[in-house]
Amino acid sequence: MSSPNSITVSQLNEVTTVEIATQGPQGPSFASSGRTMNDSNGVDGSLVRLDTSSGTFIADSTVTVTNIVDGGNF
Q1: Which of 4, 12, 42, 45 could crosslink 65 through cysteines, CB 3.0-4.6 Å?
Q2: Distance CA 10, CA 31 (A)
């Protein structure tokens, strides 16, 4: 397991360098509901939709700007 915090000390000739790195606070999750996003099959023009059965936002080739305009029912 790697640590998000580290201290590195290196010396080159007469110069000593100390570098300290710490992991900052994490931002909010993707959705306040805890849902996830599946965009692994996303294509140009994909529209994001919610699949409530899996609790996942999906962006793929099933619903795109092109097929909504060409075959959508409004």
Answers
A1: 45
A2: 42
Which pTM does this prediction carry?
0.52
Beta strands in the chain (DSSP E): 6-12, 15-21, 36-38, 49-51, 56-58
Question: Domain for residue 20, yes or no?
Answer: yes
Instruction: State residue 54 phi and psi, 5-degree precision.
Output: -105, -10
68 secondary structure, DSSP code = H
pLDDT mean over 39-65: 91
Tell whether 34 is covered by a domain: yes
* Domain encompassing residue 14: 6-71
* pLDDT tens digits, one per residue of 11-25: 878 888 888 888 877
